[in-house]
Amino acid sequence: MEPATDPIEALRACLGSANVAADAATRAQYESATFQTEQRVSAVVYPDSTAEVQAVVALARRFGLALYPISRGRNWGLGSRVPTRDESVVVDLRRMNRIVDFDEQLSCVTVEPGVTFQQLADFLESKGSGLYLSVIGGPPDASVLGNTLERGDGLGPLGDRCESSCALEAVLGTGECVRTGMGMFGPGPMSGLMATGLGPEISGLLFQSNFAIVTRLTLWLARIPEEFQGVAFAIKDPAALAPAVAALRELQQRGVLKANSFALWNPQKFLASIMQYPFAADGRALASPEQLLSHLPPALRGAHWIGMAALYSASKLHARADRRLLRQLLGPHVARLAILGRSTASWLRFTRPFAAKVLGMDPDQMLRLLYSESPFLGHPTKFSSQSVYWRKRGPKAPELDPDRDRCGLHWVCTAIPFEHAHLAKHAAIVERVALGHELEPNLSYLNLSERCLKSFAVIAFDRDADDEESRARRCHDQMLRELSDAGYPPVRLGIQSMDKVTPADTTHIELVRRLKRLFDPLDVIASGHYDFRHAWMVSDGDT
Amino acid sequence: MEPATDPIEALRACLGSANVAADAATRAQYESATFQTEQRVSAVVYPDSTAEVQAVVALARRFGLALYPISRGRNWGLGSRVPTRDESVVVDLRRMNRIVDFDEQLSCVTVEPGVTFQQLADFLESKGSGLYLSVIGGPPDASVLGNTLERGDGLGPLGDRCESSCALEAVLGTGECVRTGMGMFGPGPMSGLMATGLGPEISGLLFQSNFAIVTRLTLWLARIPEEFQGVAFAIKDPAALAPAVAALRELQQRGVLKANSFALWNPQKFLASIMQYPFAADGRALASPEQLLSHLPPALRGAHWIGMAALYSASKLHARADRRLLRQLLGPHVARLAILGRSTASWLRFTRPFAAKVLGMDPDQMLRLLYSESPFLGHPTKFSSQSVYWRKRGPKAPELDPDRDRCGLHWVCTAIPFEHAHLAKHAAIVERVALGHELEPNLSYLNLSERCLKSFAVIAFDRDADDEESRARRCHDQMLRELSDAGYPPVRLGIQSMDKVTPADTTHIELVRRLKRLFDPLDVIASGHYDFRHAWMVSDGDT
After folding, report:
1. DSSP character for A262?
2. Segments in chain A below pLDDT 70
3. Rg of chain A's alpha carbons, rounded to an integer?
4. Does residue B419 sit at the A interface (CB-CB below 8 Å)?
5. The pTM of the whole model exceeds 0.80
């Protein structure tokens, strides 16, 4: 038989016809994100193994295809499944959804790209495991590996997923397959247990990059604590933010609060998680941004910030010590400080009406969120991701699919020093820019470490409403630019912004460009994805 | 003026004559390690700035020099200051010893290569800082940056120094200077606060590598805990090791023991830290290895393992909770469990004679080691590094300098899963191989995480005694090989072993080779240092 001369035919011959889709309906799905995109998809392929991924890369090299690998395509707000480059072949890795290895005693698990947060949580539950994986605010059917590779964050211990993973298996743009960390020594007892191997460590090059298609990695899991307490509080006095931030930092420095274990939300973020924007029947917005805040539950009226945190304690006595120190350091600066542990939780369960009155909000919801089904304990949740429907006119669909439902969402991910002055400056930019575009500032902070907070600004809009699409885009671009200029560069980028950020260190850009050539000389993998290509193209002539 | 045609003259013109040494005495110093080496040094240069380092690299490229950068040259047991390649110009960075930046609130410090552990500890003390840097078991005048780049370990929180550093400034083999992590965006507020920047992260390539000369990095510091308790224990019943290891792992999983906060020492390791080998007057060794163990202090007689640990607690109540859980989980399996906190320490101070009796060892030494000057709290110590003189005949010099004193030392650094079966298997290999070469097995483990332990096997000998040099070398090589074959590959290498380890993943080797060419195309920096060169040379023909 002659080798196929048509790339789609060649892909079909390689993967089987059922695993190559080029029909209009499928392609359209992969061309839809939560904001306007122009990139067209030529085909979608569904390999089932590392060998098949290598075969796809080989064909891409032969035919000059532009591949765009996705794991589950739930990168809402940053591009969903849409490729960075026009006329791409999407490599959808959902069929590679095996949990390859699991070790309860050494608390680690090895997964393929298609494994979702829900799948892994269910797997651990079915094993009766005492471990959990920190989950994202995003949807339960997002890919664990995909989120990790994008340097996504989870709640609670080991939530800095990129720092809690190792032993990547990756197919380079050359078609070669490489194993990182201790994986370089083959599949021995140490391969999934350390971040680095011997000598130069290449793992870091494979996150937020387009050098390879990662087909497997090992993640470290956290132990379910003996005692868990959910914490909620509000900051009502603007002057209290400074001492509250200092108290939170000290609590983390002293080890009472773990990394990624508290979040500060502004009221708009909170509202977007429990309701949709209260449009009038004719679709008109509220007369003023202030009116919106009257929709807060009574207990939170007047709050500038709403805090949620988790205490992970090794014993009952530790839980008491943690609670006591938290009350002592944070208590004086916040309102409505509630700590839900085992005993409070059972008390709440039996005194719902009374509790509702005290808290001014639904105690069942509070219980689920802060204690029994807390995302801080690895329970995948839709609580946060449903806010994607915030400005969508009409009710939400029961099954969230913001790409299909033309929800509008931009995400601006930056980081700031863990200090009040930076937080205030950063928040003021986000607020001013959002309100300036007649959109809601939806803002939260998460403690990445005792040194810095990650910040997530959500720009939600309705893609079907008037001029919201273009307003939101301008809002996003301005916010990203102003935050960068103020010293808070992005930590993640949407596909629409890959050419809008220029590191000051030109040697760094040049080095990334050379590395791309080394790993993927024919540029077959995810062109433009985190490669600072605008700069690359400028200097491309001199090679 | 004509440009110099002699490289030494060119270096002198560039750095000043005082900062280029080519005399025999200086060169000899840089040719001495704690084991036999053959590499000769052509000159030593002492640049004082990043610009001067760049100038040196430029000259190396022009003249085809082999540079070998060292920070302080205290890499005892792994090669000290001696280059991997013959006829090298050593780039001694000791003059670059500035503490460039320090932030008490955000707990980080930026240092140049010449900054030592003692210097940084003194600096923090002079500032009245509430922070400390985890220290090494090695000498106080070792370089903080050098230790970090070699992926060295410290005791206590943030002891995994490579994972607790960021924002490297590095001069590549091309002569270019690059900044990693958030440093790519220039000197903004975020530059020293996060491990990664945006897009592919190159930092990992600069540890244990020869791609660049690192001239600066930021290290994260730990907060001095409100309550500190030193812990000591012994394991006398061989059957108790399994449950003790399980208890220690559980204590770490539950957060009571932090990473790098406990060490397990075998009795030979303990002895080497408090005495020298008890040679007879004529230099004869003991009749049997067992006789050595009678030199243990009474309290530790019969111990198979000696444990030291630290509890870092956020408050008095936390300290009580930590102590209680440690006693509960570990207590049943160990002997002589002692926990020295604030109150016990003062009690000990006032009851020395009685305490000596109870403990069977010097209470002052115990106090210093476990509490008031604990290396677990960032106090640089000679306690561990003096063991380099273990087999040296005659008394130690007051100022430790094992290179000068012809102490013999090989170090075998590996890692094992945090499980009893692996520990037992690993320890048995070390013991058998050491005793087989009539040397002492000197072995310790440190908890890198709840998943793995790092292991340090010390092979101490006297370079002036009979055949010890060659015996020790054979012992080292066999130990490294047997441990690798058993699934425990090295995590650091001595300069004599750079060509003795072959990762199973040949693509990985090939990739490191290509990366070396990209970063240092003329091979001017530290040839052979962690570049798996033997494999490189084999495939060198095909480019």
Report:
1. E
2. 1-2, 354-355, 357-361, 534-543
3. 24
4. yes
5. yes
